[in-house]
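Entries read sequence, tokenised fold; example below:

***
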Amino acid sequence: MKKITLLISAVLISAFVTAQTTLSHSTSQVATNGSVACASNTPPIFTQENSYWRTYTPANFGFAGDFVVTGAEFGWSYTDRAGNTPSIDVTVNIYSTTGTFPTGVRTLLATQMVSVGTAEHLTVVPVTFTTPTTLNSNSEIVVQLNIPSGETAVYDARVGQNGNGENAPSYLSSTGCGGIAPTPIGSLGTFPNSNIIINLVGDSPLSVNENDLSSLVQVYPNPATSVLNLKVSPSIEVTDTILVDVLGKTTDVKLDNGQLNISGLARGIYMLQVITNSGTMTKKIIKQ
């Protein structure tokens, strides 16, 4: 008998040049035990095949035009029940969808396998796709983390999670618990801490001309504590600036007399879009 359980316990060079930005719906990136999974209900507990899902729309994170998916990240929770310390090949898939997930028809765009085990327990594991995928920033991008059954090797493997909150729902599906289709985790029972960590990694493609724009617009100091300065070449004009946090929320910080006052922002990583009459530049900003 199976049941849903709660466990207590660079730069890419190709036809384009891209930076690396992490899109996340997780308030915290600290991976802990406790995520929901389809598992056996008698000792030794082992997890069945489980898939965890999240979706991202890059436009909600301040991106416009195309978005290049270069990778993903996931939290990892692992218990070796048999003492064999096996490595597990988990799969990360990227899909487009014709409707709002979990409805619509999904099309597989990229897949990458990564081997994880005891050493990665309670860490956030990076995944880099061999072949990047480009989509429109307004597209809903579906990320799937598939973890194979641990019945033979006797392990309990789940996505890492924490109880610090999330700003979008996460989903679970499993063939081991009666063929559950992707279902919001909050609908599967009382699992208040199952805010899973699955992030999307990528950025806007920069053509050669747009890449040269970075030499015409200088942002300093970076990291900064209170004020960012913009030094702009006389050959271009800045028409707007947009500063968003890592969760995609736009701040109210705007350019004023060549400066951005960030003293009221929390410490962390932000993305600054500088919109000019010659194109748009995106730069990662660190607020100390």
Remarks:
- Residues 208-212 form the longest helix (5 residues).
- Residues 1-18 have pLDDT under 50 and may be disordered.
- The first strand starts at residue 2 and ends at 6.
